[in-house]
């Protein structure tokens, strides 16, 4: 790949501002995405180029097909998803690379490997990365209560596939643990 020149920021707001400032520090042209509602946002004003997304719905910033079309039209060399939105999207990472661009983030295999919390924990332990006391994947409330007896309450039950606090429940007692599994959020 030739020297990077144009970088698409596939995010908005404060996250995009940080990515744009990094591009500026590296003398790279930053290309920001925005919807009509975000047209006056700071990330749009700071970017070298702003591209209006055609779709006005909340999914506009995650429309992979539309974003890749913009990348082709704008001769983009790299795409930065920031965090959230497309940052953990295996398909986006693969398609960016498949289109000959650099995906600024972990490669698709790494995203896939750490996408599930129990797998990420196992990989961290295998790599001798310190992790907090906890358990692996639990199949039911009975197993969770057995593991909880080895820990001190307050504990957190976390859905393996949840991100950003999704599927996370704080448990102060055995009753809370049983209740958390009774909600079927973790099965």
TrEMBL record:
Q: Which Pfam families match?
A: Biotin_carb_N, CPSase_L_D2
Give a yes or no for keyword Nucleotide-binding in this entry.
Answer: yes
Q: Name one GO molecular function term.
A: ATP binding
Q: Which UniProt keywords apply?
A: ATP-binding, Biotin, Ligase, Nucleotide-binding
Q: Which InterPro entries match?
A: BC-like_N, Biotin_carboxylase_complex, Biotin_carboxylation_dom, CPAse_ATP-bd, PreATP-grasp_dom_sf
Q: What is this protein called?
A: Biotin carboxylation domain-containing protein
Its source organism is Pestalotiopsis fici (strain W106-1 / CGMCC3.15140)
What lineage is this protein's organism placed in?
Answer: Eukaryota, Fungi, Dikarya, Ascomycota, Pezizomycotina
Q: Which PANTHER family match?
A: CARBOXYLASE:PYRUVATE/ACETYL-COA/PROPIONYL-COA CARBOXYLASE (PTHR18866), UREA AMIDOLYASE (PTHR18866:SF128)
Q: Which segments constitute the Biotin carboxylation domain?
A: 3-187
């Amino acid at each position: 790949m030739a020297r990077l020149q144009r970088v698409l920021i596939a995010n908005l707001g404060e996250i995009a501002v940080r990515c744009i400032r990094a591009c500026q520090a590296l003398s790279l042209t930053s290309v920001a995405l925005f919807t009509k509602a975000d047209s006056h946002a700071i990330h749009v004003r700071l970017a070298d180029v702003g591209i209006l997304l055609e779709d006005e719905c909340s999914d506009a910033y995650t429309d992979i097909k539309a974003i890749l079309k913009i990348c082709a039209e704008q001769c983009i060399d790299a795409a930065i998803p920031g965090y959230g939105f497309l940052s953990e999207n295996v398909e986006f990472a693969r398609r960016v690379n498949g289109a000959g661009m650099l995906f600024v983030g972990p490669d698709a295999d790494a995203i896939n490997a750490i996408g599930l919390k129990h797998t990420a924990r196992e990989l961290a332990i295998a790599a001798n990365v310190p992790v907090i006391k906890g358990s692996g994947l639990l199949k039911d409330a009975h197993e969770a209560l057995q593991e909880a007896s080895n820990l001190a309450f307050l504990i957190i039950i976390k859905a393996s596939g949840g991100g950003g606090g999704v599927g996370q429940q704080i448990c102060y007692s055995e009753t809370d643990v049983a209740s958390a599994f009774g909600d079927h959020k973790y099965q």
